[in-house]
Design brief:
The structure is a single chain. With 277 residues, the protein is mostly helical. It is built from ten helices and no strands. Helix 2 runs antiparallel to helix 3, helix 3 packs antiparallel against helix 4 (71-85) and helix 5 (95-118) crosses helix 6 (127-165). The chain is globular, with a radius of gyration of 20 Å.
């Protein structure tokens, strides 16, 4: 069979199972859960950053998260996030922070459900095991984003120091700005790999997960550009949704992001079926 026919067969299988597994509805569930988890997650990050004495890092984490969003989508939500982060959040080990972590873990649970459906497996693990894993994802994600944010602060300082001693390096300052996007891309890739590896009950072998992950990352970047262009040139959600326009726009964008992630899992599952005897 030619490459074209194999590709067509795999894509047809993936899209067919996306429809059969209620992927369109699951994308709504994942997008809404993820959007509702953003604020609790960033509040926890702010509390953790304050605990280690680096409160300003929380704002940099928020900037990293919204870097890959279209500006028209990210700006209103980012402003609200910054307002939330400027509020005092006292005490890391408090009941309020524990509840915040739990709420943030709901987004992880939504992703788990979507991946289980895409890989067509039934969940057999206990509720406490699943919640503990989701909480570890939230805490681990907070630590990782803080580390990346710290590197984002340290990087420009190191570059400035090098530029003072080696002036020729200064001409690469514009190129150096792309490092921030690369850092954000690495964060997304780490999240995707971790989600595919550990969230579903069962999955194809780890070495076989890369096609869906690469396709997901590529389509995410393409969707962010196309959706941003569409918002700038054609869309006028304020005429339909008034004051809710920014929220609805964010939900639309998150829906596309969730749908692409589910399609990536369906693609991996379709490839695994092709390899079966």
């Amino acid at each position: 069979m030619s490459i074209y026919r194999r590709t067509k067969a795999v894509l047809g299988d993936a899209l067919g199972h996306l429809n059969d597994d209620d992927g369109w509805a699951m994308a709504s569930h994942v997008s809404l859960s993820a959007l509702m988890a953003v604020f609790p997650f960033l509040i926890f990050v702010a509390a953790l950053a304050g605990f280690i004495g680096e409160a300003d890092l929380a704002s940099r984490v928020a900037a990293l998260i919204f870097d890959t969003w279209p500006e028209a989508v990210a700006e209103p939500i980012a402003d609200d996030v910054q307002d939330v982060l400027r509020q005092p959040h006292s005490g890391l080990l408090t009941v309020s922070v524990a509840v915040t972590i739990y709420l943030a873990s709901n987004g992880v649970e939504a992703v788990r459900t979507a991946l289980n459906r895409a890989y067509r497996v039934r969940e057999t693990r206990s509720f406490f095991h699943l919640r503990a894993q989701s909480l570890l994802f939230v805490i681990g994600g907070a630590v990782v984003t803080l580390v990346f944010a710290f590197l984002g602060v340290l990087g420009p300082l190191i570059f400035a120091w090098i530029a003072r001693h080696v002036p020729e390096v200064g001409q690469f300052q514009t190129t150096f700005l792309f490092v921030r996007l690369i850092v954000t891309g690495l964060m997304l890739a780490m999240f995707l790999v971790a989600a595919h590896l550990w969230l579903p009950t069962s999955r194809p072998p780890a070495i076989s997960l890369w096609p869906g992950i690469v396709v997901t990352l590529t389509l995410w970047l393409l969707t962010a550009w196309v959706f941003g262009y569409y918002l700038q040139r054609f869309a006028d959600y304020a005429a339909y949704y008034a004051g809710l326009a920014s929220v609805v726009t964010a939900i639309y964008f998150m829906y596309l992001v969730a749908l692409i992630m589910i399609f990536g899992a369906e693609l991996n599952a379709a490839l695994a079926r092709r390899r079966e005897p």
